[in-house]
Amino acid sequence: MEHVTLTDPAIDLPTLAAVLDTVPDPRSRRGRRYRLGPLLALTLLAVLSGATSLAQLARFIAGYDPGLRIQLGLPATTRPAASTLGRLLARLDGDAFDAVTCGYLAALAACQPPEQATSTEQATSTRTPLLGLAVDGKTLRGSRTHDGVVHLLAAIRHDTQTVLAQRQIEAKSNEIPAFTPLLRSLDLTGVVITADALHTQHDHAQQIIAAGGHYLFVVKGNQPTLLRRLKALPWREAILNDRTDETGHGRREIRRMKICTVRPGLPFPHAAQAIQVKRRRTDRRTGKTTIVTIYAITSLPPGRITHTQLAALIRGHWSIEALHHIRDVTYREDASRVRTGTAPRIMASLRNLAIGLARLLGWTNIASAADYYRSHPADGMHLLGLTT
Description:
The protein has 15 helices and 9 strands. The protein is of the alpha+beta class.
């Protein structure tokens, strides 16, 4: 992993410092001593190297070579205090920052070669492959505002774990009203939106279909009539469409998936198939076994993708939970004491950006990536386009 590089199409993209320079600068024009973009790029490099607090960010930035700071247009003696950096992050426009960084990640992810399908999948499905996009929210438990804690709703790619859109939930609201504006700026052609039961809403399904995409929604008790209809389908007579048996993280998990072509009158717009997944999980340490049955619906018509691909979309939705786990464990997000203004959201976006860049470079362990760039800062600077 020491000399991984991006694929060739990425060389036509602007440097990340230039991209971050387009974020609106909240500072007064009078007294500005350096540009915003390079400073934010150095802050991202510190996050990529494992910095989890404002004090660590300030120490990383102060430790960079003075010649590099001059090359970036920053004073050689630039050593922002943690409090100064915190005030700057707290005043940034969160929506504008997410739009810039998510747009950059989307462009970078588009440069990656598509995953190769197996010969069986290629023979079964000759249509354009579909991209899974998971939508889910996360609370920044360490944040504090006058209205409570910060809650963010994000859309991430299943395959690359890159965040393509993110919005902050309005105070005294929930994720449902934020779903429509979150996806409004995205091209959903050839995309399957996966979401948990909270977003199994008629309006959400209509929006996705109108935008040219498909949906795959989990169904639970918040849609009681739909759930009752799904449970009443003839699952005993249905054939087993897919089975996986995986061992890892101290447990063995067997998944069995059955599919029913939806009967007329199912009370959900554009629903084409109903899915039942039985998940049998055994804890290898205690020997305890739990069996959970999950129901889902999708607008994908029969034959659009293989059964294996459909099962992969269901499992792929939990990649967003993996991203949240990395932010909490590796970057200690829930323990963060960055609380003022938009700073908690900006730090979460910087973590998303750091994790996305590492994933696109092929890192499978983000903690290892942080250790590497902490020990090899020159490689991190080259990655962000700060050196040639």
